[in-house]
Amino acid sequence: MTVLAQPAWLLLLPLLLAALWHAARKSAAESGQGRTSMLLVHPDLSPLPDEKKSPPTASRWHLALNGSALLLLLLALAQPQRIGDLIPENPEGREIVMLIDTSKTMSIDDFELNGQRVDRLAVLKGVVSRFVDARQGDRFGVIVFGTTAATLVPPSFDRDLVNGMIQQVQVGIAVTTRRSAMRWGWR
């Protein structure tokens, strides 16, 4: 459906049509009677060429082109707009970055799951995986830390990737020894 944002500009349309009608009548009258021309006599103007008469069809084309240009200008000022179906908005999600501790304390068996003792990291993996699956439209990132921190997954909409990387986290994954830190230039 097409609507006009500023339809008041179309009120000038009768004025435009009246001006075109007047110009057409004037042009027809001049072509029918023959133009009356003034002759200016001056000694310095003698090298100028005589006035060339344009054929009446050229005058009509000139009038038609000027009229259509003004009509299109009025239409553009009225601002036609095409109204279509609503574009669905993307769901608003959050960007969640999870920090996972991979130090030795995460290997302590102080939780019970289905009657068996499990370590803290196993419980954390289960809780975080269920949390990631429940949040539709969110971006998740994973950072693991021990003695150092490392980005395991940058923020991503791929929940399968995030869950897969969380399941591969092990205790001590982000622990650097003094020797490897010196080799890489860390202090």
Features:
single chain; 187 residues; alpha+beta; two-stranded antiparallel ribbon
Structural description of this entry:
There is one protein chain. This protein has 187 residues and is α+β, with helices and mostly antiparallel strands. Helix content is 40%, strand content 18%. It has five helices and seven strands; from the N terminus they run βααββββαββαα. It has helices spanning 13-33, 56-77, 120-134, 159-167, 178-184; strands at 2-4, 80-82, 95-101, 111-113, 116-118, 139-145, 149-156. The protein has a three-stranded mixed sheet with strand order 3-6-7, with helices on one face. α1 runs antiparallel to α2 and α3 packs antiparallel against α4. The longest helix has 22 residues, at 56-77.
